[in-house]
Each structure stands twice: as structure tokens, then as C-alpha cells.
Amino acid sequence: MFRRLILEEWQNLLLIVGFLLIATAFFAIVVKTLRMKRKDREYMAGLPLEDEDKRRPAPSSDSNTSRDSDEQSR
After folding, report:
1. φ and ψ at 63, to 5 degrees?
2. Which of 24, 43, 63, 74 makes the best surface tag, with the fewest CB within 10 Å?
3. What are the two backbone dihedrals, phi and then psi, of residue 30, each rounded to the nearest 5 degrees?
4. 7-23: per-residue pLDDT in tens?
5. Separation of alpha carbons 49 and 12, rounded Å
6. What does the chain look like in DSSP terms, one character per residue?
7. Domain boundaries in the chain?
8. Which of 21, 24, 22, 43 is nearest to 32 (CA)?
9. pLDDT tens for each residue of 43-53
10. What is the CA 27 to chain-centroid distance, rounded?
């Protein structure tokens, strides 16, 4: 039973240390973001969220078959 109590103390310590690490990282990111220059903020706001290739619709199957037949005739 004594070993179990020591283990619980270690678990509590690990939870506290983990929380402090995550909280420190979060606040560091927030501070860095708030101190960012206006020009950098505008640049980041203008960045696309997706790659341009993913936004384009897939080519229709008709164009693929005509391309395949052209390649076979060559």
C-alpha cells in the first residue's frame, strides 16, 4: 500500500509538470504572435490555407480517354 501512495504522488507531479510545459508553450506562442509586426501579420493573413492543386477540380474522364487514344496512336 505504501508503494501505491508514492506512485500517486509521482503521477500528480507528472501531471503538474506536463501542464506547466504546455501552458508555457501556449503563452510563448501568444506573446510571439502579439509582438509580430503588422507587415508580417498581413503576410500571414494572405497565405492560402490549401495547396492550389487540391483546389482544382479533377479532370473529367472524357479528356483522359482522348489523351490515352492520342498517345496510343503515336
Report:
1. -70, -30
2. 74
3. -65, -45
4. 677 788 898 999 999 99
5. 40
6. -HHHHHHHHHHHHHHHHHHHHHHHHHHHHHHHHHTS-HHHHHHHHTS-SS-HHHHSPPPPHHHHHHHHHHHHH-
7. 22-46
8. 24
9. 999 998 887 77
10. 18
